[in-house]
Specification:
Elements: E1 21-22, E2 26-29, E3 34-37, E4 39-43, E5 51-55, E6 59-66, E7 71-80, E8 87-93, E9 96-103, E10 117-127, E11 132-138, E12 147-154, E13 164-167, E14 172-175, E15 177-181, E16 189-193, E17 199-204, E18 209-218, E19 225-231, E20 234-241, E21 255-265, E22 270-276, E23 284-293, E24 303-308, E25 311-317, E26 323-331, E27 335-336, E28 342-343, E29 347-351, E30 360-367, E31 380-394, E32 400-415, H1 416-421, E33 430-435, E34 444-449, E35 454-460, E36 466-473, E37 483-487, E38 496-500, E39 508-513, E40 519-525, E41 532-538, E42 547-552, E43 558-562, E44 575-578, E45 587-590, E46 599-602, E47 616-624, E48 627-636, E49 642-647, E50 656-660, E51 664-669, E52 675-680, E53 697-699
Parallel strand pairs: 1-6
Antiparallel strand pairs: 2-12, 3-6, 4-5, 6-11, 7-10, 7-12, 8-9, 8-11, 13-23, 14-17, 15-16, 16-23, 17-22, 18-21, 18-23, 19-20, 19-22, 24-25, 24-53, 25-26, 27-28, 29-30, 30-31, 31-32, 33-34, 34-35, 35-36, 37-38, 38-39, 39-40, 41-42, 42-43, 43-44, 45-46, 46-47, 47-48, 49-50, 50-51, 51-52
Protein name: VCBS repeat-containing protein
Pfam family, one: FG-GAP_3
Keywords: Signal
Length: 709
């Protein structure tokens, strides 16, 4: 199991919202940091500017906002490591611990003097503007956590990892272990359990990389002990010491080893070994061997899903660029016009609804009477309908069973204009995106109604039953198609809504979630006589927040970018790549060349009448005195079509794409942002979605490669 989660703090402080600035290079005095709690500023002739932070509580917190350019940096913390206590401190970036250490010097002075000055260095820390750098610490004895300064200097990305070994007796002893001499051990000592209960020891990584961890231990034959291993508090392995063929003593005959393969580890990760001895077999640990691997642990490659006529279909990725279709048995309930054309049916969304790591499905549909006519002399008419939400859970072998169903009754008022233009079911109620909108740990979903003039949040009760949490009137919805996605646009860790509107409004609305599911509009753009669609979010300008790009058709056809000021409001006048009366199609924004910056890619922008031939173009955002703009940095005339779904489909560490170009095909990235056009990956399908491009979603649907391959 890879261990790549953020490293959690041992302290239970609330989020710090500092105002103090930490420069890109140079010294920031500790006393200038924003104090969260537990620190006070004290004066003394020995610190660098005559002052330091001193703890006045058992736990203390302070920090600031990084204001330098994005890159890798070395952090040096200056402090006073006195000899009359063992304090402890963590250095965090955006709430994740990048380093923790004990102030354990026994050679300095017991008071603040030059003899007690010390520094702790953390190398290769990735920082970006707006990152919060935080200090959290715990004073001890007569050592009140006196903190002097934080120096920031240019650093470099962590180098390749190398293999290394750690003798068990050199681990940090937490409880229940002691070092005992033993001639059969690799350095003549073992770490031995010293009593009953659970014994604990830990090790903090100093390298970043991918490792096989081999635990060497003595598996004696007179007991069945147990050991489990955690990384940053998450258990990654557990095994029994159950050998019956070796010796009853800790000797060469009972020496054993256990391998945990493919751990993805970072500098600062804490590896914990915990266990219980049994019978005549107390836990005896010899050594930990970390073998660096060149290859990353193989994670699940993204699968595809889409609607094909009346069926929801999953295409499983075999890792070689080939996909195998599986019909899920979930129907889309489409209807057909007299001419045989498909009309929209149910809304289908995919997300992990039961927390098992696999994608499940939501099916959302409406029932109600025929739309009424507007009464004479009235401008609107009431209408009641029912929304049914069905949950289909994945059994891990591509079986999808109906696990829950819930109904919610809606009462809306339909205006005369909307009644003339709108057509159920797409314009009555359409589910757009699934996510944890209310931050309670389960999956909710966002929907919209053109006929009702509102956005809706349907809340999950934790058991996959859905009811209306909030309705937000939004007058700019157009008739089919409206599109929407969920993203955190103001950095408050709540999902907001980005909406592109249908044919009679043709624009963009950015809304923020007020915490109750109400979506408050903060920014918007309109214009054009064609529809707006294909919204995407990405940090285009590298300032740490999400910006928006979308497409606009018609006489004002263009690709638009709306830059975010961090609060969901617009920063600047926006950026436009336009044609006179050509095509714009779809586009994607992501870091395709691995340089840390986001590029925008499109293969449909064209205007032959004005010398803009179609082809795959890559743009980079430039912001300088000349204004905000996209500059074209590459062009391939041989790749034309509508791009979608950036993912690492072949597991080589870079982002590939899908493209509709004579069928659905794969665009394979060479790692430098250059793409080659692959063969068709699935047979042609009949999309039931009304949008700028037939919708193809990605996810992880199967647990075992042996299912089909």
């Amino acid at each position: 199991m890879p261990a790549s989660n953020p490293i959690a703090s041992i302290f239970d402080f609330p989020d710090l919202n500092p105002i103090a600035q930490i420069s890109g290079t140079g010294r920031t005095e500790a006393e200038s940091l924003t104090i969260g709690s537990g620190f006070q500023v004290r004066s003394n002739p020995h610190p660098s500017a005559g002052q330091y932070l001193e703890a006045i509580a058992p736990a203390s917190q302070a920090g600031g906002i990084f204001s330098g350019a994005a890159g890798y940096y070395d952090l040096t913390l200056g402090y006073f490591d006195e000899s009359d206590g063992v304090s402890f401190m963590e250095i965090l970036v955006n709430g994740s611990v990048v380093s923790s250490f004990a102030w354990d010097s026994a050679t300095g002075s017991q008071i603040v003097t030059a003899a007690a000055k010390a520094e702790h260095v953390v190398t290769g820390v990735a920082l970006a503007p707006g990152d919060v750098i935080e200090l959290r610490g715990m004073a001890d004895g007569g050592e009140p956590l006196r903190t002097d300064y934080l120096d920031v200097s240019a650093g470099s990305a962590p180098g390749p990892a190398s293999s290394f070994a750690v003798e068990a007796e050199d681990l940090t002893l937490v409880s229940g272990f002691e070092a005992v001499r033993n001639g059969a051990a690799s350095a003549s000592y073992v770490l031995q359990q010293s009593g009953g209960g659970t014994a604990r020891a830990s090790f903090t990584m100093e390298q970043t990389g991918h490792f096989d961890l081999t635990i060497r231990y003595f598996d004696e034959s007179d007991g069945v002990s147990e050991l489990w291993v955690k990384v940053n508090g998450v258990e990654v392995d557990r095994f029994l010491w159950d050998d019956v063929t070796g010796s009853t003593l800790a000797s060469k005959a009972s020496l054993a080893q256990h391998v945990i393969a493919g751990l993805d580890l970072r500098a600062g990760d804490v590896i914990e070994l915990e266990g219980r001895g049994d019978g005549g077999e107390p836990l005896r640990l010899d050594r930990l061997d970390f073998e660096a691997r060149d290859d990353a642990p193989a994670g699940p490659l993204p699968d595809l899903w889409y609607e094909d006529g009346n069926d929801v279909v999953v295409a499983l990725n075999d890792g070689s660029g080939a996909f195998t279709e599986v019909v899920t048995g979930i129907t889309t309930d489409v209807t057909y016009s007299a001419g045989g054309a498909i009309r929209a049916g149910a809304s289908i969304l995919s997300a992990d609804l039961d927390g098992d790591g696999l994608n499940d499905f939501l099916k959302v549909f409406t029932t109600g009477p025929e739309l009424p006519a507007i009464p004479a002399g009235a401008s609107q008419v009431p209408y009641r309908f029912t929304v049914t939400t069905e949950v289909y859970l994945n059994d891990g072998a591509m079986g999808f069973d109906l696990a829950a169903s819930s109904d919610e009754v809606f009462d809306i008022l339909i205006g005369d204009v909307e009644l003339d233009a709108g057509e159920p079911p797409a314009d009555l109620f359409r589910a757009h995106a699934a996510g944890d909108i209310d931050a309670d740990g389960d999956i909710d979903y966002l929907a919209g109604s053109y006929l009702g003039g509102a956005l809706f949040v349907l809340e999950n009760d934790g058991a996959n039953a859905f009811s209306l949490q909030a309705a937000t009137p939004i007058a700019v919805l157009g008739y089919t198609p409206n599109e929407a996605l969920l993203a955190d646009m103001n950095g408050d860790e709540l999902l907001d809504a980005v909406v592109t509107t249908g044919a009679d409004w043709n624009g963009l609305a950015i809304t923020v979630n007020d915490g109750t599911g109400q979506m408050v509009t903060t920014a918007g753009r309109g214009g054009g006589e064609g529809g707006a669609g294909n919204p995407q979010v990405a940090d285009l300008d590298g300032d740490g927040d999400l910006d928006v790009i979308y497409s606009l058709a018609g006489e004002d056809s263009a690709l638009y970018a709306v830059l975010n000021d961090g609060t969901g409001h617009e920063d600047g006048a926006g950026v436009r790549i336009g044609t006179i009366d050509g095509g714009v199609g779809t586009k994607l924004a992501a870091d395709f060349d691995g340089d840390g910056d986001v590029e925008m890619v499109t293969a449909s922008l064209s205007d032959e009448d004005y010398g803009v031939p179609a082809g795959l173009r890559t743009f980079e955002l430039v912001r300088d005195a000349a204004g905000d703009r996209f500059e074209e940095v590459s062009y391939d005339p041989d790749i034309v079509g509508r791009v979608l779904a950036p993912e690492d489909y072949d597991g080589d560490g870079d982002l590939d794409m899908l493209i509709f170009s004579s069928g659905l095909r794969l665009l394979v990235n060479d790692g430098a942002g250059n793409f080659s056009l692959g063969d068709e990956i699935v047979p042609p399908f009949v999309s039931t979605e009304v949008s700028w491009v037939p919708r193809v979603g990605t996810g992880d649907f199967d647990t075992a490669d042996t299912f089909l391959f």
